[in-house]
Amino acid sequence: MRCTAVVLAVETAGARDVIWLVAGFAIAVAVGVYLVGKVRGAYRETDVPDTNLLTNFRELHARGELSDEEYRTIKAQLATKIREKLLADAESNEKIDFADKPEPADS
Length: 107
What we know:
With 107 residues, the protein is mainly α. It folds into 2 domains: 1-47; 48-99. 84% of the residues lie in helices and 0% in strands. Helix 2 packs antiparallel against helix 3 (68-100). The longest helix is centred in the first third of the chain and has 44 residues, at 2-45.
């Protein structure tokens, strides 16, 4: 009987260690995910605006570092991206504007 109690105590201690190990691993993963999110967010905030990129590519084309075809391709892609962003911004501003306007009074 005494031998069974010792084996049970050893198994319980081992299980406790495994639980602490899993908990520590989960915390480490959570901290890692948080830090990766912070770093990615910082990169997003420092992205070069598309209009600046278009200006840079225009200068490269003027200096002859980009062919006409390369410049047209880049310009078309950036123009589409800028247009989509402007439309999305305009849509979100319209939603805000409608929310701020008072309801018309019934006469």
